[in-house]
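Entry 12.
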Amino acid sequence: MTNPLEIVQAFNGIDDISLRVNASRLKALAWARVSTEMQDAKGHSIPEQLKQIREYAENNDIEIAAEYSEAASAYQSRSKRLEFVKMLQHAQDDPDISIILIHDFSRFSRDSTKAKTLVRELKDQGIRIISLNDPEFDTDTVAGVYMEAITYAKNEAYSKEVAFHTRKGCKANVNARDDETGWGYKNGGTPMWGYKSVRLERGFERKGIPIIKAIWNLDDSIVEGRPVHEWAKYCLVELAMKGASLAEIRDFCNEQGLPARRSKHWSFSTWKSLLSLPAIMQYSGYGLWNVRRKNGSYKPYDEWEIVENAHPAIITTDEAKAILDVRKEQSKSKSFGKSHKRLRNSPYLLSGGLSKCGRCGSNLVGFKKDRNHAYYVCGSIQYRKGKGCGPGVYIPQMELEEEVINGLEEMMSKFTVSDGFEDKINNEIKRIWENETGVTSHVEKELREVEIKLKNIYDAIENGFHADTALLERSQKLQVRKDELENICRLKLNPPSIDSNAVREYVTDLRRVINSKNAVESRKLLRMSVEGIMFDPEALEVMINYKIPESVGFKMVAGGGFEPPTFGL
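Predicted 3D structure (tokens):
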């Protein structure tokens, strides 16, 4: 019997058509995820999830081509979930993969909007998501749409409820003290350099599971002849407090062979973090919690949970204050505003966090060898004074930026031929124009209200009501506002609009538009269009992920989503 793939190939006269057709067994990828080690319990741990997925695949004659897993929050951006991105890329690159098996949809993503969008994107590419513990639904039916919404809403609501109770428990835990040691309990996380986490068994739960608590104690492991906590104190008191720069402290640690916190070598940014206000407070014995938001920015100081004498102090409070005073003076003298301005005007359009090294996760930064040779390179090479995450690989600036613009042109070309594109663009322009000019139905409504208020005042005066100073001032303000509103209505014009031809001309001339703008505007345009750039130094490949502007309802042309391009060096 003729294979259906052969029939399609013969009909089209091609050999490289990609169809997710397999005459024997369906092929799938297995995906498992936990948020933290605390979820490592039966029914939730990664091994248990994978075990159940394997059993399901065996019972349904599905071949698992590969297994992927990670311990990370499903609320994190996709760029931070490296294993998740690898799994998705495998599914999209391998035409034999038609299924992704998951324990439940919350393992995929607990953000209902992101989950729904991603599942539908994969479905359009012929990849089905099968959840072992959620009901199956067909989104092409009315009932299926309702079931989809209920499933995603349930997962997101459950996640928020868990987060609420977790935060409540963490707040109580950080304010509690261990009866034996007297130190405050910690809510997990990596200890500050100079400390070690000590896990204590404090009783048992109802099911006989031991209750584990964590405290910080001084790290007394010996490095180069002295305990680590002594090295930390030396760097803080003998270097930072006496005015040493971040670069000088970094170089001292690297020269002494001290092990860095998360990588082989110390960096400028690590010491900037260790000399921040929260870090210095912890070095002087304070316990802190609820300091940062999810995006890394600081919360208001009055929201911090601060516990005195929560662990052994490495420095005194007087030394802590002195270090912070020195850092404050250094910050003034270095004029960080100029540094920020220099970054904004940098000719490297893809720097500043948009592009990253796939080996260590550092940002790619600009490096100019001479007038004619400019590159992007892993920031660890620059900021660790040559002690990077591995052999340095230099990406030609012009080549990388050219590839990004080429992909952007291709993506925009696909948008411009989609149905209803012109209407969607002009609706968005109208919305922006109305917000900026204030010309909306609200203007006319407010004008009518002001006219009624003025009429009531005039009628009252005519009927003998005494017009005191306050009333006259009120009427004058209303009259001024009335004149403003009438002027807006008198000048009311039709909002600007463009047609598809104008947009196509813009896309065709996109390269000139980017090059003609200043660096700030060009960087802003690229950040609106590019999700992120990941460079793999081992494979010498760069992957570029573009954003789909969903805010104006764009849809890709028939035939599937936009394929993230890669190019080799």
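Annotation: Confidence is low (pLDDT under 50) at residues 7-23, 37-43, 335-341, 550-564. The chain is about 45% helix and 15% strand.
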